[in-house]
Structures are given as structure tokens and as C-alpha cells.
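Batch manifest, entry 17 of 40.
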Amino acid sequence: MKAVKLIATLFLVYVGIVIAFESLLGYFQPTRETTLVISTTAEDGTSNDRVLTRLGSNGQLYVAANHWPRAWYNRALENSNVQVTLDGEKGDYLAVPVTEEEHDRVSAENSLGMMFRILTGFPPRYFVRLDPR
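Output type: C-alpha cells
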């Protein structure tokens, strides 16, 4: 019984760490030269901005949903017309879901570190290709 309590406590502490990490990352949205800002529009017309890491493969631009909170990803799939601010320049893009083969290639070329995966709770990873309009 003591072992079960210890495992349950460790699990709850881990879940708390993941929630805290994801919340702080979403709140602060740190930017650097490898990030971009994507503006997606919800069904009610409201626009939301999200800072994401830009990824590349075969000369094309991608972003990934690497976290459990992924409202921006769902909005981009619902309304594929998005705005992207990249290197200070804002432009119109089409958010295109990737094929399975494309997903595997982009994932292999842009792998995540183990510490990041641990801190985010091992969420599934989904990619979107951003095609200029």
C-alpha cells in the first residue's frame, strides 16, 4: 500500500510539473530568432496569436503542435487562412495539414529533446505546412 501511495504521489507531482510548465510557456510565449507568430481566427471571428517555433523541411515552412493545449492548431484546421509574422514581416498563409509521409520526414528532421518531451507530458505531435498565399 505504501508503494501505491508513493507512485500516486510521484505521478501527481509530475502532472503538476507538466501543467505548470505548459501554463507558463503559454502565458509568457517566449520569442527568439527561431520563432514566428501565427494568427488564427475562431468561428466567432475572434483572432488569437500564438508564438511557435518555425520548422523547415525541403525548403518549406512548418509549425508543430507539440503541447497538450493546441487551440491554435484546431483553429488553423477549421480556417486555413492564417496570418504569420516572420522576421518582423506579416503575411498571409494557407495552413495545410501534412500527409503521413510528410509528417514522418518533418519529425525526423526536427526532433524534440527528451527533456522537452518530459516537461510537456509526451503529447502527440502534429504538423502544419504554411504555404504563402
